Amino acid sequence: MQKLKITEMQRLGTEEYIKSKKLPLTIVLDDVRSMNNVGSIFRTADAFRLEGICLCGITARPPHPDIHKTALGAEESVPWQYYPSTMAAVEDLLCQGYSLCAVEQAHGSISLETFHPEIGKRYALILGNEVKGVRQNVINMCNCCLEIPQFGTKHSLNVSVTAGIVIWQMVAPMLSLLRP
């Protein structure tokens, strides 16, 4: 095996990316404090060509050097919108017909490996604050809570790691929508 060169990867340019078909998945960040986490989530959203990101409350917004450090320009390609509150974002997404999935440890949550998104349905994944998680009033508005099974001593994963895991699980069945 030989590593691919960047010129062999056939990636889209930013303008081409912006015009391209997106997967029906939007990420909602509920008061995410770390700009490095925000940037990392932008980069993951770009990698899987997601519809966009909702930045809510205290979540930092581009342009910012600390977001750019981990986003590496994805903040330029991934559409994003700011909402003063996560509830405002959730209400807007519900009006647009999204199915809302909080990523949270909760009574009645669905273990991530058993969740199968419906092709053609639009989803919004809500990811919470690094300490407090997703707000309860936001969870109350959601169609479900998804939980990543964990077997160690820690109670949670980093929010950008969580985003990567859950996004992959959501988009894997949808990849055929992007392939020619």
UniProtKB/TrEMBL annotation:
Keyword list, A-Z: Methyltransferase, Transferase
Classification via CDD domains: SpoU-like
Superkingdom of the source species: Bacteria
Any GO BP annotation: methylation
Gene Ontology CC: cytosol
Domain tRNA/rRNA methyltransferase SpoU type: 25-167
GO molecular function, one term: RNA binding
Family annotation (InterPro entries): Alpha/beta_knot_MTases (IPR029028), rRNA_MeTrfase_TrmH (IPR004441), SpoU_MeTrfase (IPR001537), tRNA_m1G_MTases_N (IPR029026)
Protein name: SpoU rRNA methylase family protein
Organism listed in the record: Porphyromonas loveana
Lineage: Bacteria, Pseudomonadati, Bacteroidota, Bacteroidia, Bacteroidales
